Amino acid sequence: MSRTSIKKYRAETGGISASVVSLVAAILAAGGVGVLPTDTIYGIVGSALNKKVVERIYHLRERDTKKPMIILIGSLADLAFFGVVLDKKELALARRVWPGKVSVVMPCPTARFSYLHRGSKTLAFRMPEPQWLRALLKITGPLVAPSANVEGESPAKTVAGAKRYFGDKIEFYGDAGKRVSRPSTIIKMENGKIMVLRKGAVAI
């Protein structure tokens, strides 16, 4: 698969143009992997529904294979891909924090997605706020999106930083200037109460 240089577009808001969204979606649909600005920091992204893509990202990031990755979704309906059914309290929580910089851990006991949950039988989902990113997700379906770095190193704040980690090993880089943000807050619902697993960009 050929490498594609994606030019900077509206760096002040981290946006990507509609034409570039279409280009990126096509690359991801073909099993490609690339770096994009997310609602928090730069992430290395690929289809969450493609096991080979997920394993490739683990390899690229030299990530602990026991650690699941956060999954970006474009709508609540995307949870159905993973057999996730929300009760009333969980649905209320999701509507409260999404779209936004909050990742919610939900049960996913099926063995079919063991390549994602890595034996934990849970997955963390986030619905990002930027319209362009949700437009992309509506085309591609859910994407894994860990931070753009090798495990143990600092997350890339720029595309130049991401290239130092991944070079020409991936298909594209989406440049939206410097990205500085705390990572997403990670929460889960347990016994009807919200538990904060990681403090981050949003106070809960």
Give a written overview of the molecule.
The protein has one domain (4-198): DHBP synthase (Alpha-Beta Complex). It is 27% helix and 21% strand. The protein contains 6 helices and 10 strands; from the N terminus they run E-H-E-E-H-E-H-E-H-E-H-E-H-E-E-E. The chain has helices spanning 18-29, 51-61, 88-97, 114-117, 131-140, 159-166, and strands spanning 4-6, 34-37, 42-47, 71-72, 102-107, 122-126, 143-144, 172-174, 185-190, 193-198. A 10-stranded mixed beta sheet has the order 1-8-2-3-7-4-6-5-9-10, sandwiched between helices. Helix 1 (18-29) packs parallel to helix 5. The termini are far apart. Mean pLDDT is 91; it is low at 7-13.
CATH topology: DHBP synthase
What shape does the CA trace take? Answer: globular
Calculate Rg over CA atoms. Answer: 16 Å
Number-wise, the strands total 10
Q: Which CATH C-level class is it? A: Alpha Beta
Short description:
This protein has 204 residues and is of the alpha/beta class.
Keywords:
alpha/beta, DHBP synthase, 27% helix, 21% strand, globular, 6 helices, 10-stranded mixed beta sheet, 204 residues
Secondary-structure map with pairings?
Blueprint: E1 4-6, H1 18-29, E2 34-37, E3 42-47, H2 51-61, E4 71-72, H3 88-97, E5 102-107, H4 114-117, E6 122-126, H5 131-140, E7 143-144, H6 159-166, E8 172-174, E9 185-190, E10 193-198
Parallel strand pairs: 1-8, 2-8, 4-6, 5-9
Antiparallel strand pairs: 2-3, 3-7, 4-7, 5-6, 9-10
Helix pairs in contact: 1-5
